[in-house]
Amino acid sequence: MTSPASSVTSVVRTVSTPYYLQIADILRVGISEGKWAPGQLIPSEASLCEMFAVSRTAIRQALGQLVAEGLLHKEKGRGTFVARPHVAIAVQELRGLFDEMTAAGRQVTTDVLRQELTAAPVAIAPLLDVPVGSSVVCIERLRSVGGEPLVHATTYLPWPRFADLTEIDLHAAGLYAVLDERYGVQPHGGLRRLEALTSTAAQAKLLRVRSRDAVLRVIASNVDVTGTPFEAFEAYYRGDRAVFEAVVRREDSADLFI
User: Fold this and answer.
1) How far apart are the first and last CA of the chain?
2) What is the pLDDT of residues 134-146, one digit of tens each?
3) Under 8 Å CB-to-CB from 18, ≥6 apart: which residues?
4) Does pTM surpass 0.85?
5) pLDDT band at 247 (very low <50, low <70, confident <90, very high)
C-alpha cells in the first residue's frame, strides 16, 4: 500500500524539529484532507518506518501524538485506525435525539425493535412514579446517525395516558414531536444519570462494536409543565462515537447567558 502521506511531504533532516513531530504533521494533513477515511486502517508501524526512513520509536511517538489528539485510535492485534468523529449530545437539552441531530444537520434513522405494553421494571417504576409491575408503554429503538448505530434506547411511558403510542409509527418521527402534537406534552425538566460500562455481547451486536467495548449508560426521566413524569428511559451509547456536553454556570449568574 502506498502512503498518501508520502505524496504530501517527507521528513526534513536539516531542521531542528524532531522527526516524530514532522511525521505527525504529515499524517495529520493526510487525515484532514480525507486521504484516509474515518475508520480506515493506516499503514503499519513497519511500513511507516520504511516510508519515512526513521526508527520505530519515532513512528510510535508520532502515532501516540495523534492518538492523544483523538485523530487516531489503536486496536490491539489489529492496528491503528483513523478515529471517527464523535457525536456531541447536550446533557441539559430537553429535546429528543431526533430533534437534536436534525437541528445539527445530521441524518437519524430509527429501527423500532419493540413497541408494546409491558410491566414497569424495578429501576424504572420510581422514575415514573408508578408501582413496580404496573402497565407502561415500552418503546425500544436502535438509533443510527449518519448510517452508523449510535444508541440503543428503551423508553417507558405511563399507561393509560399514552396507551395508543403502541400503534404509532416512530420510524421516521421523533417521539417528542409525537408527544407534543398528539398529547400536548411539553418537557419541563428531568434527571440524567450517566455511567461508563463495558458492552454485553447483545449490546455489542446491536451497536456494531466488539463485546466489552466501552458504552455509556444513561438513565433518564422527564416531567411535563405540571411536574408529572411522562417518560423514563435507559440508553446505551457507543463509547467511541458519543460525547456528552453540558453548560455549567453559577446559580446567581443566569443573566449572563440571556
Assistant:
1) 54
2) 999 999 999 888 7
3) 58, 61
4) no
5) low
81 contacts 42 by C-beta, under 8 angstroms: yes
The CA radius of gyration of the chain, in Å to the nearest whole number, is 23
Q: Taking the CA atoms of 30, 35, 38 and 41 in sequence, report the sign of the dihedral they define.
A: negative
Mean local confidence (pLDDT), 52-61: 92
- Residue ranges and CATH numbers for the domains of the chain are 4-82 (1.10.10.10), 87-252 (3.40.1410.10)
